[in-house]
Amino acid sequence: MATAFSAPKLAAQPFSTISPSSQDRPLKIPFLGSTRKLRCLGSSRLNLSRRPSGPVVAVSDVVKAKKPTQNPSLLITKDEGLELYEDMVLGRAFEDMCAQMYYRGKMFGFVHLYNGQEAVSTGFIKLLKQQDSVVSTYRDHVHALSKGVPSRAVMSELFGKSTGCCRGQGGSMHMFSSEHNLIGGFAFIGEGIPVATGAAFSSKYRREVLKEANCDHVTLAFFGDGTCNNGQFYECLNMAALWKLPIVFVVENNLWAIGMSHLRATSDPQIYKKGPAFGMPGVHVDGMDVLKVREVAKEAIGRARRGEGPTLVECETYRFRGHSLADPDELRDPAEKAHYAARDPITALKKYLIENNLAGEAELKAIDKKIDELLEDAVEFAEESPLPPRSQLLENVFADPKGFGIGPDGRYRCEDPKFTEGTAHV
Amino acid sequence: MAAIFHGVGAAASLSLSPSNSFDSNKSVFSPRRSFSARKGASFAVVRSEGTVNLNLKGRRAQQLISNAVATTADSIDASSSSKPGHELLLFEALQEGLEEEMERDPRVCVMGEDVGHYGGSYKVTKELAKKFGDLRVLDTPIAENSFTGMGIGAAMTGLRPVVEGMNMGFLLLAFNQISNNCGMLHYTSGGQFTIPIVIRGPGGVGRQLGAEHSQRLESYFQSIPGIQMVACSTPYNAKGLMKAAIRSENPVILFEHVLLYNLKERIPDEDYICNLEEAEMVRPGEHVTILTYSRMRYHVMQAAKTLVNKGYDPEVIDIRSLKPFDLYTIGNSVKKTHRVLIVEECMRTGGIGASLTAAITENFNDYLDAPIVCLSSQDVPTPYAGTLEEVTVVQPAQIVTAVEQLCK
Questions:
Q1: Percent of chain B, pLDDT > 70?
Q2: Domains annotated on chain A, with CATH
Q3: Closest chain B residue by Cα to residue A190
Q4: With pLDDT > 90 as the criterion, what percentage of chain A qualifies?
Q5: What's the confidence (pLDDT) of residue A425?
Q6: In the structure, what pLDDT confidence band is assigned to residue B11 with cuts at 50, 70 and 90?
Q7: Largest CA-CA distance found in chain B, in angstroms, rounded
Q8: Which chain A residues are within 8 Å of B249, Cβ to Cβ?
Q9: Bridge partner list, A412
Q10: Do the interacting molecules here have an ipTM over 0.90?
Q11: Is A198 in Cβ contact with B250 (below 8 Å)?
Q12: Residue A303 has pLDDT above 60, yes or no
């Protein structure tokens, strides 16, 4: 089966050396490092199937080619289709509601909306287990929702209420949920990627050092095209490939970094090509088509779970709104916007479901209505939730509040009653 | 006995022995356990004997003045094996602490450049990779920002990493991760994720290492909310602070000093930690409070020798906890002596001394008889030339002069 990941089929050990000639030598200590040869034995003999990284292929072609040959079987079942549809509609409706609430003065600061990119979030995150981790950027509302964080919690967080998922302390750009393993929410681009690498490292550590035999948790790191010019991206690609960490790097290439076009910022705009430079497959996929994204995601997540290492997936997608609600969005060509608007992922999935008789109009409308009601409820909940009291100010600065030190009276400052009131001066 | 010693340099080695005896002799030179054991704290009052090769020219150290360091009979065989505990160098103490914690908790792991196969550029992680494996003592590529971030991500997902900066100065490259993620994520996640990470490494002015390898990062990191900073200065507190930092749920930055790795001391065999938030009473006194940390402790103690000869009685406190300050120990001292001298290696502007001056003025202004004097390094990139480097940091002679001025 042709896939974009024609890595050689390896033996089960995650870090046994790959080159076949070493199989007759018994391994004493597994080598934690790169197994690529420093020099090829003549570039003409480069055998693609032998290289640890897969060739660079535009998967949209591969997936498109797949469909006609699998005639009767579709890419998804009805249940899966409805799940994907519901998740994408939730994402879209939530973001639209955010815009409304922002202009009504209920939420503040920088709010970055995800309209148009739902296929990436849904396509990837719906394949994960609860224990898998997701690391996002400031455009994280929909990643949170796809991962399972309740809409109420996210909406309250945006309103800055104490019932928010981060008690109102994080805000739009810092969505966290330890229950759902959503490890942020980061305001600076690129700074989440090392954290994701660390989460993947934990997973590998658990399996190999702590001997938790079935620990195969995968981490997904989402970030944009602008981040791909940042050092942290490259440093983490290197480390993840070096140690074969169970991580998938998902680039949401929406072609714009605020007002900077990807083409004006990047010497080689084809981001997926940067994967093989580090020894991992680099895949490009049409990010407006949730089914194509899902197929690629299955492969990439499967690779990570089996211990074969990281993958770089570039999803070509588009954001229908500006960078944030404060962005006038004047630089983007209306023709470009129209082109992508015509490829709205929700409309596309709807069409697919109906044409393939997986669902009817009525069913889908019912889902739309359900989501609307869910969001009404979320907004109501957020409105009625209390604002954080002053006493919350100092509570989470340190996990161990002894970190505030010893005051002049000899007692730890956190024992001072003013601490619980939040009026202590530290 | 007051503890007065000067220990620096690869060739030097000192014998220090913690005092376990409670001597009720009231004279100025008697060792006193200053405060009753508060919250299980232990203070080491150190004694020393033996002379040290001081400086590059090879001159012998000043002869110890007998009435300043009146060595009693039992301290003469301080290095004999009949005493309890075992003797080791500071870097070995750090290694011992790290190893014990790694044995105690399998989630403790080390990450850094050359920590594994090389054993650490200052040998703090020597042999650990052989014992615990390449994944637990991870040799990282040269990517401070990313591997510090990786450590933070690992800490958030259940591990307890110890990240080593080969030189503290390199951690400037990791400032993004340390400030934004290490310090903030516990708060911005509403308390959902803890970051029990330890970031450690050698810093400070060494022997002609040049400007970039001679930085004091404690002044840059001190404003970051959500982290704790400690500085070790003796093998005893190095091991104790290392262990306490690893066991702490908070992110802790442990500052070591390049010149102190070869200090020798006898430390207890049993398991002990040093409280992260407490300061250490080095030499009790009556006339002036001298607050210091890390390498400057030794310059202060050398100056104290001279001062004692001149009839002064300085109280020397090693603040150890750079953030937060132990205002109880410091405050009690200020209330007793009414004069404060801060001796630090940080730069004058915005250093630990500056913060400490502010904190003391805010809290204990009524008890001060004189303005606080703060001796810091010059606001100068550390020069390579030895003569210039010597004058960028505070030297014992300056400390003596400052005390004389203060106590006029």
A1: 80
A2: 78-384 (3.40.50.970)
A3: B146
A4: 75
A5: 67
A6: very low
A7: 60
A8: 398-400
A9: A406
A10: no
A11: no
A12: yes
Predicted pLDDT at A31: 73
Phi and psi of A402, rounded to 5°? Answer: -60, -20
Token duo for residue B241? 């602070």
CA distance A354 to chain B (A): 41
Q: With an 8 Å Cβ cutoff, are B135 and A168 in contact?
A: no
Q: Name the active-site residue from B87, B144, B315, B344.
A: B144
Q: Do A410 and B328 touch (CB under 8 A)?
A: yes
Rounded CA-CA distance B294/B203 in Å is: 10
Residue A312 tokens read as: 């770089």
- Kindly write down the DSSP assignment for every residue of A123-175, as one continuous string: HHHTT--TTSEEE--S--HHHHHHHT--HHHHHHHHHT-TTSTTTTSS-TT--
> What would the pLDDT profile of B83-132 be if each residue is shown by its tens digit?
789 999 999 999 999 999 999 999 999 999 999 999 999 999 999 999 99
Q: Measured between CB atoms, which of B154, B187, B328 is closest to A396?
A: B187
Amino acid at B257: H
Closest Cα of chain B to A249: distance in Å? 15
* CB-defined contacts A:B, below 8 A: 200
Which tokens hold the place of A200?
A: 């993947």
Output the six-digit token pair for A415.
């024992």
Question: Are B277 and A405 inside 8 Å of each other by CB?
Answer: yes
| Residue B391 CB neighbour total at 10 angstroms | 13
Q: Say which of A194, A402, A426 has its CB closest to residue B146.
A: A194
User: Which pLDDT score, from 0 to 100, does residue B51 have?
Assistant: 37
If you average pLDDT over every residue of chain B, what do you get? 84
Residue B278 annotated as catalytic: no
Q: Which range among A26-30, A68-72, A150-154, B365-369 shows the weakest confidence by mean pLDDT? A: A68-72
Question: In this complex, which of A203, A239, A409 lies closest to B143 when CB atoms are compared?
Answer: A239
Q: Which domains does chain B have, with CATH numbers?
A: 85-268 (3.40.50.970), 280-407 (3.40.50.920)
The helix (H) or strand (E) run that includes residue A120 is: helix A118-125
Q: In this complex, do A205 and B159 lie within 8 Å of one another by their Cβ atoms?
A: yes
Of A313, A291, A290, A288, residue with least CA distance to A300 = A313
Q: A38 near A263, Cβ under 8 Å? A: no
DSSP conformational letter for B339: -
Report the share of chain B in percent with pLDDT over 90. Answer: 79
Q: DSSP string covering A402-420, please? A: GGG-B-TTSSBGGGSHHHH
Catalytic-residue membership of B6: no
